[in-house]
Design goal:
Largest sheet: 3 strands, antiparallel
Number of helices: 4
Strand order of the largest sheet: 2-1-3
Radius of gyration: 12 Å
Distance between the termini: 31 Å
Strand content: 25-35%
Oligomer: single chain
Shape: globular
Length: 80
């Protein structure tokens, strides 16, 4: 079975906070965030820009990496 490529990503929101997520289609997901269709959080606080992304071999690895990064302090996220 072939692996599907996923991405973990960090967005900067207009209030200066960060949003961490993962997706199987980075370009589509970023557009959904821009349009306010991706999730309630970025509907309330729009995205400013994509700060960082990292490919992962599958959804399990992507979700694990997302949880890891979400647990980091802001300073560590900024070093990405």
């Amino acid at each position: 079975m072939a692996s599907h490529l996923f991405h973990v990503y960090v967005l900067e929101l207009t209030d200066g906070s960060y949003y961490v997520g993962h997706t199987s289609n980075l370009n589509r997901r970023i557009q959904e965030h821009r349009d306010g269709r991706a999730c309630d959080h970025t509907k309330k606080i729009p995205m400013k820009r994509l700060l960082w992304s990292e490919p992962q071999p599958d959804r399990i690895f992507a979700a694990k990496r997302e949880r890891e990064i979400k647990g980091w302090r802001r300073e560590k996220k900024e070093k990405l």
